[in-house]
Amino acid sequence: SLNCVEWSLLPPATEEVVAQAQRLKGRFQGDPSFEHENSEVNAEDAETVEGEKEPVMKEEARLVATIEQIDRAVGIIPRGAFVKTPSGSVHENRSFEGLSLMEAKKLSSYFHFTEPVNLKNKTLLEKADLDPSTDFLDSLEHDIPPGSWTVQLERGGTVVVLRSLLWPGLTFYHVPMTKQYGYIYFGTGEKNLDLPFML
Asked: Which of 68, 77, 121, 174 could be joined to 181 by an S-S link, Cβ 3.0–4.6 Å?
């Protein structure tokens, strides 16, 4: 939206757009038609593309790619909010009543809401303690670098808040013993690539 009254949907992100957006640096301008130039074109690439313009990307496409990157990296849900059926389909768990306060304080009680990567690399012995109906996603406790999440209690311990240090501005909340949870991002759209050196 340009005027906060009329809204339109963004197109879906493709892998090419996401890869191109990862090479861009700098903040967003607020104009969907603004063209970002890739300043990291090396000399070899510049020679092979003689006569052509430098690769540019419209801000609208960069926004779509950045939202996709954030959702993949830090879109999370509490353990048990979704279940996997024996047929392999994933559904919202209607009987989910929230995590207990003790569970809500642990990073192992939260999962990335994307296709699992680390879970496939676990041995059978490591998978033996997991419940296949609820533990079918990657847990936050194994995120790299370790320490990329902060867990805090707010409002006298009635709300658990997780903040991402990798994508500053991402805040997830969960009210223990209720179905209330969600996340929101208020950031610059820039990933904190210095995080491993800051921890």
From this structure: 174
